[in-house]
Amino acid sequence: MQEDDDDDDHGNKLGDYLGTCLKSKRYLIVMDGVRDMEIFDALKRCLPRDDQTRSRVLLTTRDSEVACRTGCLSTLHRMRFLHFRESRRLVDQRVFGADRCPYELRRIRNKIVRCCKGLPLLLVVTGASLSKIVRTRQVWLSFADNLEIAAKDEDWCIAILGLSYYHLPHHLRPCFLYMLMFPEDYNVRSAKLFRLWAAEGFVRCESAKSMEELAEEYLEDLVERNLVLVATRGSQGKIKRCAIHDVLRELCLGEARKEKFIFIVNAQEDALQPDIQEYHRLSVCHDVLRDCPDIMDSVKHNASKAHSLVSIGTEHSTPKLDEFRYKLLKVLDLLALNFSTFPLEITELVSLRYLALTFGETLPPYISRLQNLRTIVHRNTSPSTGSYLPIEIWMMPNLVHVHIPPAHLSTPPFRTNALALETLADVVNLSLSPHVLEKIKRLKKLSISYDVDQESFKEWSMYQLKNLACLDELEKLKFQVLDFATTSRGRLKPWKLAFPKSLKKLTLSGCRIHWLWLKIVGALPKIRVLKLRNDACRGGEWKPLEGHFGELRSLELENVDLVRWVAEPIHFPRLRRLTIKSCPQLKMIPQGLSNISTLQKIELVDCLPQAAESMRRSGSSVTVCNY
């Protein structure tokens, strides 16, 4: 919670809105891992009074005082440790699945189970480690002996979890410890995590797989071992955000101290510790940035040998740094600091591979001095679609990921080589000439917008949109048309648009093409996620063609002109999730969709009640959520 008046006012409005939404409705609210009563009391103030709907709030906490202060002692459920048989069953399920434990391993298995003392977290983590080692008596006996020694330790819980860390392959250990770079209870975006791992040198390509594919495998392996938790998965089933259990975080802290891996600055005095010089990675807590504005100066003078400096949190203003001593930096993530201009000192960090900054202007030309840079993340406090990226961006051959506020991309010089660029977002009015495509032919993710209201906007034919199909490695595309004046020149001719067959995820916004022309999307062989937003399509009626959208898993319709939708299972045979938002003219969802065997959920937001009722009347077993 922020302490200024604006944030308090926003919190009050949010609380009032929540109370209005819940009034006269039956609801279940789950609050997991509550540590103090302040959060619970804040929620209670928002809930409707004199509620007769028999609604419930389910709260979990490890603090018995918090549980008692809720005033619900009659419904208090104290968790117990698992009995031996329950513990054994949990380990067997994790290690053997539906199979039974081999006879020669049962005594050793029982010994391992007893060492975990009925604690579920230890059982699932230990079971995950067992599932990764060879199933021989000798190997399991060695594991059990080490576990028995750890169980006698004063801090036995951390000691037992430590064995799971030591059983990690060496390439996964730094990836696991790196979770400490983020605040406690923080859900990390996996895409960001992968790029940080790559910048640190934890992910090395030794096969035909890309660095991102290898990083995904690393993360999935850590999840399988129950060392990392999945917070959310994306529409394609991949991990979108992840976190670690707070007990496992304690394990990380202990191992990080032993290995001098990461130093965490939680207070002003931490930055003055003499041993900070021995650490190569620094994580600065965002609360410290708020409470101690000069903390960065302390860190700067006492940790000049750092290879990585990360600060995660909400933005805070900071004065311009007069001197930057981190000459060895590979990773610099200071999005939580709001610079007025780009700090010139950063261009001296020639080893830099990952740079994330917030400042109020466009990227400067001298950014090209950072020739080893792989990732640029720029957050602009005053973005404008009229700004330009410097032409020097084409002279950075190692650049792989570029995330910027909306900006124009200058035409590349003819004598420059193709870039290693895989991600480019967000570019305005990009001309897809053969010359430009030759420089960005390795793109996998692209976000482009066309601002028709700008005076510099040309005719659509000048942007050569059909050449999009030549980006044969492109997997994700966000294509947006900004035409707030609804000018006639802003009307995109769909026959001038084409997409590569490699495309898996597509977001269209503001295009105003007729529903009929979605056939150019439906014919894409690999398309799995389709999002149509803000008048992406017009015409009132959509009749998909048979044989199209054969691989589509997720479909989202938001604020589109749709009155009548005619569809059967044959049109979306593998659809799993359907989301419809702010489509007030759509009165009925095709009842045939309820017969799609793979469909799991239909989510409706700000739609007519008749739309949800049409699916419920069909007798569908699909979960329908109407907000």
β-strand number = 27
Query: What does the largest sheet look like?
Result: 18 strands, parallel
Label the structural class: alpha/beta
Distance between the termini: 26 Å
Number of helices: 17
Rg from alpha-carbon coordinates: 27 Å
| Low-pLDDT runs | 1-7
Shape: globular
Helix content: 25-40%
List the domain count as a whole number. 6
Please, what is the oligomeric state?
single chain
Mean pLDDT score: 85
| Content of β-strand | 15-25%
Write out key terms for the chains shown.
6 domains; 18-stranded parallel β-sheet; alpha/beta; Arc Repressor Mutant, subunit A; single chain; 27% helix; 17 helices; disordered N terminus; Helicase, Ruva Protein, domain 3
Protein topology:
Blueprint: H1 5-22, E1 28-31, H2 37-46, E2 56-59, H3 64-69, H4 84-96, H5 106-115, H6 120-131, H7 137-151, H8 156-166, H9 173-177, E3 188-189, H10 190-200, H11 211-224, E4 229-233, E5 239-243, H12 246-259, E6 263-265, E7 281-284, H13 286-291, H14 295-302, E8 308-310, E9 316-317, E10 331-339, E11 354-359, E12 375-379, E13 388-389, E14 401-409, E15 423-428, H15 434-439, E16 445-451, E17 476-482, E18 505-509, E19 513-514, H16 519-522, E20 529-533, E21 537-538, E22 540-542, E23 554-558, E24 562-565, E25 577-581, E26 601-605, H17 609-617, E27 623-626
Helix pairs in contact: 1-2, 4-5, 4-6, 5-7, 6-8, 7-8, 8-12, 10-11
